[in-house]
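Any chance you could type out some protein's one-letter sequence along with its backbone structure tokens so I can compare the two?
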Amino acid sequence: MQVPTIEQLGLPEVCRSLVVKRSGLIVVTGPTGCGKSTSLASMMDYLNRGEKRKVITIEDPIEFVHQDNMCVFSQRELGTDTKSFANALKYCLRQDPDVILVGEMRDLETMAAALTAAETGHLVLTTLHTPSAPQAIDRF
């Protein structure tokens, strides 16, 4: 499946500037089926077209297969390659990625691991299932 561009999705300009940062935590929130994963995939595609980075994705399931362009991707799938998001986050740090995409933060352990990765100099992108953006704060 072709990854839609940031322009095609009509995402705000800030998505371009955020995804090229060297570290931090980007959380895309919203209800089921609103395009959170597709938005992250388009941001990864933008990064892949313009920046040299080592990217590890942890997904359930893998929705878009990213071909290496300027970035080098390693995509992991829950159940096939790892037992949990938190477990995969712990072990992927040993591979010194620049960017980590976590398909969804479902539990406190995953949230803590994502925050730790961001605090230690990685750019972490993830989704959080919430009815609205303000409710995402309550989930943390």
Remarks:
- The two ends are 33 Å apart (CA to CA).
- The chain has a mean pLDDT of 95.
- The longest strand covers residues 24-30.
